[in-house]
Amino acid sequence: MSVVGVIDFETTGLSPAMGDRATEVAIVLLDGAQVVGRFQSLMNAGVRISPFIEQYTGISNEMIRAAPPAEDVMAEAARFVRGVPLVAHNASFDQRFWSAELDRLGPDASRDHPFACTMLLSRRLYPQAGSYRLQSLASFHALPPAGRAHRAMADAEVAAALLSRIRQDIQREYEVDAAPHALLVRLQRTQRKALPKAIQAYFSSALPASRQPDHENGA
DNA sequence: TGCCAGGCCCTCTTTAGGGCCTT
Fold it and tell me: Where's the Exonuclease domain (predicted)?
């Protein structure tokens, strides 16, 4: 089973293009459903945190003042996940901050990580869920609580548990032995009706005929 | 509590608009 990193950023706002910066990053390394590593750090990017964000995340300006420089934290985070594909909930958000923060380290910073998104996958796999917020999906699946919501490690832990559940459901529903990262990236762009065919195509060279997913029955 | 953005997805759609989701 290949290792993936489940990442979550806390930030000063929604858009690095508008000047927002990361304030905290957490990464949970998963090997299958097993947690094999954790990285978490506040970071000081030299920007003020609004009262709304202080209340939303619990991360205060005082906490940030005492944190290591953002560049140091991001360099360490990049080393931590070198060669490891990443997963996030609403990954387009975390991918933007990942790229923007690593861009500040210079052109040599490794930021070309393939991201998979647990929100897009959940929309495909769980049409009955209703809401696709991380906490809503955690409740929907009765995932174990992981601490204060909207802190990076707690959210990364919940997203990691959600990813494990997604992989488990793909494997059980489509009778495949694994749901590797490349398949997850493909499925998050695949319409729900086409999931069986996409999975079958992915595994067609590896699965014996008797284990091929039955795409005629749909999902 | 939510504005800023951006990508995805649904529908009263596709020559568009608005809601969801992330902080």
Answer: 3-172
